[in-house]
Predict the structure.
Amino acid sequence: MSDCIGVGIVGARFAAHFHWSGFQKVYGVPVRVTGVFSKSPESREAFAAEFGIRAFDSFEALCDACDVIDICAPGSVHETLAVGALRRGKHVIVEKPFTGYYGPGKESFRGNSFPKETMLREAMASCDRILQAAREANKLVCYAENWVYAPAIQKEREILVKSGGQIAVYDSTVAHLLDGEPRRTRRRSAAHHRHLRGAGASLSTTYSPIRDRTPRWLRLILWG
């Protein structure tokens, strides 16, 4: 790796813009956004022109020019891009969602009616494939929205461990951008509001203990 860490951004829309902003605030180590790739030539050229960087014509060319690949593309391609970058010897940053299950590639697939246990199993398998590729490449995979070490989550974890409590309801106040303007809304049980577009920042959260076993995905977040 060179003295200055070169970052390549994949994707050129909302998430890519605030990732760019974040890289400008990094201190302590020299970091430079080398370029951007998007499947849309118009999007990548516009993004490159806005920030004075290079627009790459292919994902592979971007990888070859960078030390770190920052994936801001749709979740359905996160695994493919992450594994591809790792196999080319690059560290990887992945925007939320880390990965998931998006069906067998048929237009008829509907996640809201598909068996959730199967989706969870497939999503976990996708995680395993990314992590295996990272181990084989001896490179880092960084999740861009990981609340594990946030002070509030660490305190909640401490309370759960000491009390033996569990979690029933996730209730949060969330800030979104809607048509370019900030909006506040509430989420319960991590349900997404489909009328909102763009990323959301959690402003406050509350959790209620229950007797039922904490779901596996939540145990992974809290205890690893």
Notes: The radius of gyration is 19 Å. The helical segments are 14-24, 41-51, 59-64, 78-87, 116-137, 151-163, 216-223. The chain has a mean pLDDT of 82.
